[in-house]
Design brief:
Distance between the termini: 73 Å
Number of strands: 39
Radius of gyration: 27 Å
Strand order of the largest sheet: 14-13-10-11-12-15-22-20
CATH class of the largest domain: Alpha Beta
Helix content: 25-40%
Strand content: 25-35%
Number of domains: 6
CATH topology of the largest domain: D-amino Acid Aminotransferase, Chain A, domain 1
Bound molecules: adenosine-5'-diphosphate
CATH architecture of the largest domain: 2-Layer Sandwich
Shape: globular
Structural class: alpha+beta
């Protein structure tokens, strides 16, 4: 076994790999970009080396800097994690050249599976079933459109070099094919530097089931069962589980054999995943990921194995620790990915500071993999995942219950997350009944994404009492004199005087009138009176009771904005300061701002251009997709503030725009 390992990654996966390496007595080396000097993975490792500026292509994707860090540190092996360079044949080769063991398959196997088209051709020869489609060399529009017609609509256009759902377009009918093809090719070219695509029959009610495989250098290959990853948004996984509900032993065996055959066909070594799409009784090969997957913990939970340990042992030349017939699975495991993203806005990634981040207390059978701490930021440069929460149970219901209970204990404020969405999903009756396919989220969108419900009395009381508690803790005259929270003009500690706290929740105004009563308050919330009190709990939550009913809530604030987070939902309230006069009204319709952090892909207009309502003005590219900024009305482009390639933060003014009146 190696004595020193460099982890060429960041975030939760770097932390995950470091944990196992440490357990095996291997010294760990972290690398970090300028944005990550204070990151958790750096703090966890035994040593750390800077590798460049924040943008990934100048740091985590810079092969030269990584090799240099390995050489400086004396690391004998390099673990690529997932994403970044984990499926880059050149990186694996550069490691080999430098005499560093790459913890992964040989470069040839990475390359063979790197192109979805080439991989499909290879699998066809190995007798692995494929989705009907076209993965040939012809790339002109006429040939591809003809192939789509032969395959039969609806079809899916996929980037051959694809990953992360980029360059993928569903096409329902022939007359929209050309536009979808152009857009897929553009996205593929910018994401992968390769605009080749393939065409597949688009299955309408499939499940995504993948097989975890492992191979060693001694000719042994096996699988560690399957994971069902059908719960997806934007064709990207968000909840995964093992075993796959409803998969019978016969199909599991057939899928396992196909996966092992796929791995053998490319001379595979290490951990890999063979992804299948299944519909009815049939299953088809989609692609092979030549690395560890994000969702590997569910396999660990049911098999009791440490997949990173296996990777390291195999990389060190050991044989697979078990034979196929010795691998056993027990119980059920489910993983939910907690992301900084806004489900209500089509799951767009969000960035910002994790002003408050409290995870559930450690519990048996509840695992949390994370790479961030309270106070860290989710930046535009990297993946917006905050944590993976994994629960195990004797059966599926037990696992789901544990997972939901764990997620409910999360307290995150400072940015929007998908937590409340995940809870609704996990508790949805159709999900509980295993009645799902990859269209689940789309199908139940209205139930999974209901309009925000108004803050209940406990939440309003929490926001108000937190404010009053902080004021009294600050005492008169102390604290920040400019903070509205420390203003005491209306406050007298006697008689029947009261304090009105006005809150804006969206368009609605809410009023809390607080009468001081010794240790407690009489609270009139939107006119309804109750006896209220609040107490800080050791974990930072505020225990609020109204007429004796006690609820623990987290209250976090930035300026006048207060976020209240409870077990099932979160609310955002704006404190209306009676003394502040709000003057800066946003000039209506005068600006077009970025709906998400991202990169400007295309600028389609210049200053002075007269445009029609709905005309595309700019194309933004964020982590997983293209987003078009269109003219809100007929008018004139006054100014364009960005050029292609520029990075923009959420809310940045992209284009100044005027309408004739
Ligand atoms: P990427 O590598 O970009 O993530 P994949 O090929 O793994 O793309 O596909 C991602 C997801 O898209 C799959 O999990 C599945 O939900 C959906 N998908 C892929 N191919 C098909 C298909 N032929 N029909 C229907 N859905 C598909």
């Amino acid at each position: 076994m190696f004595s020193k390992l460099l982890v060429a990654n960041r975030g939760e996966i770097a932390c995950r790999v470091i944990r196992t390496a440490r357990a095996l007595g291997i010294r760990t080396v972290a690398v970090y970009s300028a944005a990550d000097a204070g990151a958790l993975h750096v703090a966890m490792a035994d040593e750390a080396y800077p590798i460049g500026p924040a943008p990934a292509r100048e740091s985590y994707l810079n092969i030269g800097r990584l090799i240099e860090a390995a050489e400086r540190s004396g690391a004998e092996a390099m673990h690529p994690g997932y994403g970044f360079l984990s499926e880059n044949g050149d990186f694996a080769e550069a490691c080999a050249k430098a005499g560093i063991v790459f913890v992964g398959p040989p470069p040839a196997a990475i390359r063979a599976m790197g192109s979805k088209a080439a991989a499909k051709a290879l699998m066809e020869r190995a007798g692995v079933p494929l989705v009907p489609g076209y993965h040939g060399a012809a790339q002109d529009e006429t040939s591809l459109a003809a192939a789509a017609l032969r395959v039969g609509y609806p079809v899916l256009i996929k980037a051959s070099a694809g990953g992360g759902g980029k360059g993928m377009r569903v096409v329902e009918a022939p007359w929209t094919f050309a536009a979808a093809l152009a857009s897929a090719k553009r996205e593929a070219a910018s994401a992968f530097g390769d605009d080749r695509v393939l065409i597949e029959k688009y299955l309408t009610r499939p499940r995504h089931i993948e097989m975890q495989v492992f191979a060693d250098r001694h000719g042994n290959t096996l699988h560690l069962f399957e994971r069902d990853c059908s719960i997806q948004r934007r064709h990207q996984k968000v909840v995964e589980e093992a075993p796959a509900p409803g998969l019978d032993a016969e199909r599991r065996r057939a899928m396992g054999e196909a996966a092992v055959a796929a791995a053998r066909a490319v001379g595979y070594v290490g951990a890999g995943t063979v992804e299948f799409i299944a519909e009815g009784g049939a299953f088809y090969f989609m692609e092979m990921n030549t690395r560890l997957q994000v969702e590997h913990p569910v396999t660990e939970a049911i098999t009791g194995l440490d997949l990173v340990e296996w990777q390291l042992r195999i990389a060190a030349g050991e044989a697979l620790p078990l034979r196929q017939e010795e691998v056993a699975a027990r119980g059920h495991a489910v993983e939910a990915r907690l992301y900084a993203e806004d489900p209500a806005r089509d799951f767009l990634p969000v960035t910002g500071g994790l002003r408050r981040l409290r995870a559930p207390a450690p519990a048996p059978d509840l695992r949390i993999d994370t790479g961030v701490r309270e106070g860290d930021a989710v930046s535009v440069h990297y993946d917006p995942m905050i944590a993976k929460v994994i629960a195990w149970g004797e059966d599926r219901n037990a696992a789901l219950r544990r997972l939901a209970a764990g997620l409910a204990r999360y307290r995150i404020a400072g940015l929007t997350t998908n937590r409340d969405f995940l809870l609704r999903l996990l508790r949805h009756p159709a999900f509980a009944a295993c009645a799902y396919d990859t269209g689940f989220i789309e199908h139940y969108r209205a139930e999974l994404l209901p309009p925000p419900s108004p803050a209940p009395p406990h939440a309003l009381a929490a926001a108000s009492l937190a404010l009053l508690l902080d004021e009294s803790a600050a005492g008169s005259g102390s604290g920040d004199p400019h903070s509205p929270w420390h203003r005491r003009d209306f406050w007298r500690l006697n008689g029947d005087t009261y304090r009105d706290l006005r809150w804006a929740e969206g368009e609605t105004q809410r009023l809390v009138r607080a009468y001081y009563r010794g240790e407690r308050y009489r609270l009139e919330i939107d006119g309804a009176a109750s006896d209220g009190g609040a107490m800080r709990l050791p974990d930072g939550d505020l225990a609020v009771d109204l007429d004796g009913v006690r609820v623990a809530l987290a209250v976090s604030r930035l300026g006048d904005e207060v976020t209240v987070v409870g077990d099932d939902a979160s609310w955002r309230l704006l404190y209306i300061d009676p003394l502040a006069h709000r003057t800066e009204e946003e000039a209506a319709g005068g600006r077009l701002s970025a709906p998400m952090p991202g990169k400007v892909a295309q600028v389609l207009v210049t200053s002075g251009a007269r445009v029609k309502r709905g005309q595309a003005l700019m194309v933004l590219e964020a982590m997983k997709m293209e987003h078009t900024i269109a003219a809100p009305a007929d008018g004139t482009v006054e100014r364009v503030d960005y050029a292609p390639g520029d990075l923009v933060e959420e809310g940045a003014e992209l284009i100044a725009f005027s309408t004739p009146d």
